[in-house]
Amino acid sequence: MAKTADRKKKVDCLSRMMAVRDALDVINGKWKLMILISISDGNSRFREIERSIPKINSKVLAKELKDLEEHQLIKRTVIDGYPVLIEYTATDYVMSLEKVMDSLYDWGVNHRKKIFAK
Amino acid sequence: MAKTADRKKKVDCLSRMMAVRDALDVINGKWKLMILISISDGNSRFREIERSIPKINSKVLAKELKDLEEHQLIKRTVIDGYPVLIEYTATDYVMSLEKVMDSLYDWGVNHRKKIFAK
DNA sequence: GTAAGCAGTTACCTAAAAGTAAGCACAATG
DNA sequence: CATTGTGCTTACTTTTAGGTAACTGCTTAC
Predict the structure, then answer these.
(1) ∠ at Cα B32 (B26, B34), nearest 5°?
(2) What is the distance in angstroms between the Cα of A73 and the nearest Cα belonging to chain B?
(3) What are the pLDDT digits (tens) for A6-29?
(4) Across the interface, which of B16, B30, B104 has its CB nearest the CB of A37?
(5) CATH no. for residue B57?
(6) In chain B, which residues have their Cβ closer than 8 Å to the Cβ of A26?
(7) Are both B40 and B56 inside the same structural domain?
(8) Chain B residues 83-102 with CB within 8 Å of chain A
(9) Are B19 and B55 contained in the same domain?
(10) Which of B12, B19, B102 faces A108 most closely, judged by CB atoms?
(11) Quick one: B72 and B112 in the same domain?
(12) What SS3 class is residue A84?
């Protein structure tokens, strides 16, 4: 293979890695996708989300919600009244993650099958 | 909504979370997907893979390669001779991750565009 | 004869992620 | 009148992931 082609290949490989890394930086960790699934599923209150995700705790949830809001994947709305209520909702941008979540779901289901088949 | 429907919804939400979690357990961390990309791209020797991934170090690479082998995503082959050579190759099972990697790639590219657009 | 390459391992250290437990101020519920 | 629920925060500890540097034994190239 020519050197230029070789260099091109390396760049392709690198840029693929970088894009995947960019994506992972946003959705990494144990909790982010779980929270997005929960909210997309209709859970909107802090406690509600907390209860819907086994083993999560409020400190972690609060931190992750902030991260997700920064990345514009969820919206935090304050509803005045006594007591003040907070509502978390999925933004349109979450839709762009659909393929990622679906493919992860499919693969997870399949992988579990594979493991238990042994 | 009826209680049974409510319960069903909860179960669906939970099982979706669990499958996604199962998938993440296998490919999480900074390095696993990068390594898979590198090997799929044709890098097969330890040092070759190491050089292809910016900032990785041999301790981490060795550990991740073991993990990936356990999950049957790569194969480690010993080639006798002096010195003994080792070859890492992607298994067929990696193909099943194609959708996951592609969707992450697409999303990463798009997300980066979005960020720099501001 | 020394440097670099092969495929890692070892011991040690740091940083980041995650978990624990308690508490805030106020309201409605039992 | 004690408990529960609201949406978190704080201080602290543990766990995990990741990073650094040096070294192995043997080979080929400079």
Answers:
(1) 145
(2) 11
(3) 666 777 999 999 999 999 999 989
(4) B16
(5) 1.10.10.10
(6) 111
(7) yes
(8) 96-97, 99-102
(9) no
(10) B19
(11) yes
(12) coil
The residues, any chain, with a CB within 8 Å of residue A113's CB and separated by 6 or more, are none
d(Cα A32, Cα A39) in Å, to the nearest integer?
Answer: 11
Nucleotides of D under 7 A from a protein CB: 5-11, 17-22, 25-28
Contact call for B37 and A18, based on CB within 8 A: no
* Residues of chain B with C-beta less than 8 angstroms from the C-beta of A37: 13, 16-17, 20
Q: Are residues B101 and B89 in the same domain?
A: yes
Give residue-wise pLDDT tens across range A49-61: 999 999 999 999 9
* Bridge partner list, B88: B76
Mutating which of A7, A11, A12, A24 best tests the B interface, going by the most B Cβ atoms within 10 A?
A: A24
Angle between helix A98-117 and B3-27 (nearest 10): 80
Are A64 and A100 found together in one domain?
yes
**Which tokens in the block code for residue A100?**
């990622």
Cα separation, B110 vs A23, whole angstroms: 9
Structural domain of B19 = 1-29
SS3 content of chain A, % helix, strand, coil (to 5): 70, 10, 20
Confidence of residue A4 (pLDDT cuts 50, 70, 90): low
